[in-house]
Amino acid sequence: FAAGSVNVYLGASDIGDYAPGGSFIDASAVQAGRASRQANAEENFQALVKKIKAALNDEKEWTSYFEPLNKPMSEWNGGNYEKKWGWSKEPVGGQCRLCRLAFANRAKGARFNSATQQVEGVVPPPFGHDFWKTAWKSSDAKVEVPH
Measured between alpha carbons, how far is residue 65 from residues 22, 29, 37, 71 in Å? Predict the structure, then answer.
């Protein structure tokens, strides 16, 4: 978004939880149709091609994908974005959520609190600590975290 690109999204169906509707071209119908061998799969594909061509050939259409991003987050997806991710107003330090989740699943004594998106039970060593170069890279399913 920051680069001024219009994104064509093909992925999880809950994309609306992470980006405002109307700010990307959703290709999910094409994939779903092909995966289930629906009769209208080709029709869905042609509709996607038409959307992409419209965005590429019409500046007004292109810029329309950025309009939802100009609204306050509290208005994204009817306010559902703010409701789901309201906790994120608090500063969340350290690694990204996915990194914290991976750490919590692998570190002995750790657990991931999905409400706060934080690791509990153990404290991850700081970035640059030898733990990340040694124990973390081991093939062990669970690893001891230094205190």
Answer: 6, 19, 30, 12
Q: Is the pTM higher than 0.70?
A: no
For residues 84 and 73, what is the distance between their CA atoms, to the nearest angstrom?
Answer: 11
DSSP codes of every residue in 80-100? HHHHHHGGGGS---SS-HHHH
pLDDT at 56: 94
pLDDT of residue 48 exceeding 80? yes
**Beta-sheet pairing, 7-9 with 24-26:** parallel
Name the residue among 133, 128, 119, 126 with its Cα closest to residue 147: 126
Q: What number of other Cβ atoms are within 10 A of residue 124's Cβ?
A: 19
Largest Cα separation within the chain, whole Å, is 59
pLDDT tens digits for 112-129? Answer: 988 888 889 998 888 778
Distance between CA atoms of residues 10 and 28, nearest Å: 5
Q: How many CA atoms lie within 13 A of 3 on its CB side?
A: 3
Average pLDDT over residues 27-33: 74
